[in-house]
Amino acid sequence: RGDKTPGFFARYLAKDLRIGVSEAEKCGLTLDVARDTLANLDELTARGLGSEGTQALIRHYEPRQKKRDCQ
């Protein structure tokens, strides 16, 4: 609980999702949720958070949630 130690780096998940999305597209499949998650992971990596665990995605969504809570 509250452990921020990386178990699986966000940038590695992005790499794996990129492969999965690419292979799915070759088969004519569209994986919208995977593409959205990949975009979020790419944004985290661009912000220098790629070496954090996949729980870094929570940080990505927290500001959005706070804005929604205030409305």
Features of the shown structure:
71 residues; mainly alpha
What is shown here, in short?
This protein has 71 residues and is mostly helical. The protein has helices spanning 10-26, 32-46, 56-70. Helix 1 packs antiparallel against helix 2 (32-46).
Q: Provide the β-strand percentage band.
A: under 5%
How far do the termini sit from each other?
Answer: 29 Å
Largest beta-sheet details: none
Coarse shape: globular
Helix content: 55-70%
* Average of pLDDT: 85
Structural class: mainly alpha
Low-pLDDT stretches: none
Radius of gyration equals: 14 Å
Count the DSSP helices. Answer: 3
Order of helices and strands: HHH
Count all strands and give the number: 0
Describe the structure.
By secondary structure, the protein is an all-alpha fold. Helices cover 66% and strands 0% of the residues. The chain contains 3 helices and no strands. Helix 1 runs antiparallel to helix 2. The longest helix is centred in the N-terminal third of the chain and has 17 residues. It is globular, with a radius of gyration of 14 Å. The N and C termini lie far apart (29 Å).
What is the strand and helix layout of this fold?
Blueprint: H1 10-26, H2 32-46, H3 56-70
Helix pairs in contact: 1-2
